[in-house]
Specification:
The chain is an alpha+beta fold and 321 residues long. 41% of the residues lie in helices and 18% in strands. The chain has two domains: 9-97, Nucleic acid-binding proteins (OB fold (Dihydrolipoamide Acetyltransferase, E2P), Beta Barrel), CATH 2.40.50; 100-283, Hypothetical protein af1432, CATH 1.10.3210. It is elongated, with a radius of gyration of 23 Å.
Length: 321
């Protein structure tokens, strides 16, 4: 929440992501800890009075109106909440307004993905992709889906943006390494994450669905593509095996959630292309969040186990101390 400054008083609507009663330090009394989100980001807050009453009035995943003071707490902006209540019908709040959206245009994304499909030379793979992407109901759901919950492409159209970027990367790598199976790689890129359509819900904020938490997007996507392949006449078994392997292995390691590791050249390429795009998008988000005129380093990033160096913001040469 870069637009909030310690010392500022705010009155805004948010989606209540989480609520929790916590014990005050050295006291038997509770305070209410809340996690709030809107199209500008995510912030935590604390309500110190009437905590139990407000806890019972509020429901997670619903819009709330908050009056608060912005404070600095452990080097992060934090809300000291004065008042919080559920949004009412008269407030006229649409939960969808709280979701950020990709800076890319939906029609342009659709056009570029269609061009990618048109360039796939294998007729079985092209037919599979057309059956998927020419379904208007599929595209509607695909377009609303984020690429992730909190880490990368966590906004509407995020999945489409990420999918196209990965497809472009594998296409370029096929130019550099011409013995790669370009058609297989582009198809793998365009379907590797489609399970996320059923993994996430986006009613005001991004959260896992029950199915998403129980099965995960890799398993969901695998079964979706396997069903489409079974419905195709004479789809080659070897081609099916290799395409499904791309979906199953695209996160690269068992500890990353893939049930199998990459075992083909194309699987390695897809894994690294997916990593490049997701990591760079996450680093861009961190840069936007943390970078200030007098600040060259991000906060410590637990998921990367490192800080990110921004360098000199003005682009001028400066001495490294």
């Amino acid at each position: 929440m870069r637009h909030f400054t310690p010392g500022q008083s705010i009155t805004e609507f948010f989606i209540l992501r989480k609520k929790e009663l916590r014990k005050k330090h050295n006291s038997d009394e509770f305070y209410l800890s809340v996690e709030l989100t809107n199209e500008k980001g995510r912030i935590f807050g604390s309500l110190w009075t009437e905590a139990e009453k407000r806890y019972s009035e509020l429901s997670e995943g619903t819009p709330v109106k908050v009056q608060a003071s912005v404070i600095d707490w452990k080097n992060n902006v934090h809300l000291s909440v004065n008042k919080i209540r559920p949004a009412t019908e008269s407030d006229g709040i649409d939960p969808e307004r709280f979701l950020p959206t990709s800076p890319m245009n939906e029609e342009n994304l659709k056009k570029e993905i269609t061009e990618m499909i048109d360039g796939v030379e294998n007729p079985f793979l092209k037919g599979l992709l057309n059956k998927l992407y020419k379904d208007e109901s599929f595209w509607k759901n695909f377009a609303r889906t984020p690429g992730g919950k909190l880490w990368h492409h966590c906004y509407k159209l995020g999945l489409a943006e990420h999918t196209l970027s990965v497809a472009k990367l594998v296409s370029h790598l096929s130019d550099v390494y011409p013995t790669l199976n370009r058609a297989l790689l582009i198809t793998g890129a365009l379907v590797h994450d489609i399970g996320k359509i059923d993994e996430y819900q986006t009613k005001g904020y991004i959260e896992f669905t029950d199915r998403g938490r129980l099965h995960g997007h890799i398993t969901i996507g695998f079964h979706k593509i396997a069903s489409l392949i079974e419905a195709c006449d004479d789809f080659p078994k070897e081609l099916s095996a290799q395409l499904l392997h791309l979906i199953l292995s695209h996160q690269g390691a068992l500890e990353n959630g893939s049930p199998v590791v990459p075992m083909t050249r194309e699987a390695f390429v897809l894994y690294f292309a997916d990593e490049i795009d997701s990591k760079l998008n996450a680093i861009d988000r961190i840069t936007l969040r943390d970078r200030e005129p007098d600040r060259k380093w991000s906060q410590y990033i637990n998921l990367l186990n490192r800080f990110i160096y921004f360098g000199d913001q003005a682009g001028e040469d400066s001495q490294i101390a």
